[in-house]
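Repro case for the chain-ordering regression, as requested:
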Amino acid sequence: MTSFLFAAAIFVLVMEALGLVRILRGPADADRILSVQLIGSGGVAVLLLLSAATQTPAIMDVALMLALLATFVSVAFLRDVRHSDEPTNT
Amino acid sequence: MKFAIDIFTVVMVSSGVVFFMAGTVGLLRFPDTLTRLHALTKVDNLGLGLIVFGLLPQAQGLLGALKLLSIWVLVQLSGAIVSQLIAQATQRSGRQT
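-- result from build under test --
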């Protein structure tokens, strides 16, 4: 069971690493923030899998924090995009 | 009984991981921002949801299970809000150019 959970965590990590390619290529800033969003939810999944694999409940709190911070990153970024747009409109 | 629970976990976590793979492939291959957003919401909802569902029987006690569920609910809420914001920003920049 432990090795299966570790394997699943590693697989999700590899998928996140592939998602980084979109940060490199993404034509718009919105595409890059999509990749960050993927890393946020993927990171939460990895931490939950590791917490179950190593029987360490504390890692679950780290996952909770990561979920919260990933939200803040996206909201702060998009707020910034919107504010930089407004002066050019008027 | 323990064996049946383990089988349940393996099946659920595997299907969640498949959704993560599908979301990553969609993020890399789809042609524009809104379709990529569509691919990503599947990861947020089903990928993480199935992994959490699979890990529920492995959780330590009721409190651990509740914490798992609350993490999932938090990611659901933030995913919904951030998707709306990204779509709004995309539409706005599309109108300008």
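Ordering looks correct now. DSSP finds three helices and no strands in chain B.
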